[in-house]
Amino acid sequence: MSFELLLHNISQHIDLQDEEKAYFTSLLRIKKLKRKQFLLQAGDIETHQTFVTSGCLRSYSIDGNGFEHILQFAPTNWWIGDINSVINKSPATLYIDALFESDLILISRDDLEKVYKQIPSFERYFRILAENALVTHQRRLLDNLTLSAKDRYTNFCLRYPSLIQCLPQKYIAAYIGVTPEFLSKMLNSKQLSK
């Protein structure tokens, strides 16, 4: 597997010399997941940051009634992880699994610390990612508190345009916080009103 997609993602935020790229890529690990295979389960301690080079992952929790609540989808060219678990070395509260067969690149938290010391500009790259993630999660929280299900669905379509046609409705419903039945009725009434 090539690291070109990840290096291109990084190059959108920082410039690296060839030797810096070589050092960084020497610390990366490749992993493949089959459909429905777990990258992480609640209770495990996550030790890596994960970049998706093909496929799609999702992170989610399961409430006391057994309902899934999807926090994030990570299609190709996205990062995913249980940040609390990685940073605090605490048991994960999220499950992360593959929705489709997926190719991943992983870097351990320890190796990432080495990269920060050797190549300080990487702190800028991951700061930008963290800021973007914080903005996204804040916007999503406000959307869940203030928007209708229809508007949350519209925002989902804008955020994940590549996933609208390929995800089962039950996953979209779990992301926007409605039942699959409600989403189906909403989409059917939307189509009827056109």
Automatic annotation (TrEMBL):
Signal peptide: none
Gene3D superfamilies: Jelly Rolls
UniProt domain Cyclic nucleotide-binding: residue ranges: 31-118
Pfam family, any one: cNMP_binding
UniProt protein name: cAMP-binding protein
Organism annotation: Solitalea canadensis (strain ATCC 29591 / DSM 3403 / JCM 21819 / LMG 8368 / NBRC 15130 / NCIMB 12057 / USAM 9D) (Flexibacter canadensis)
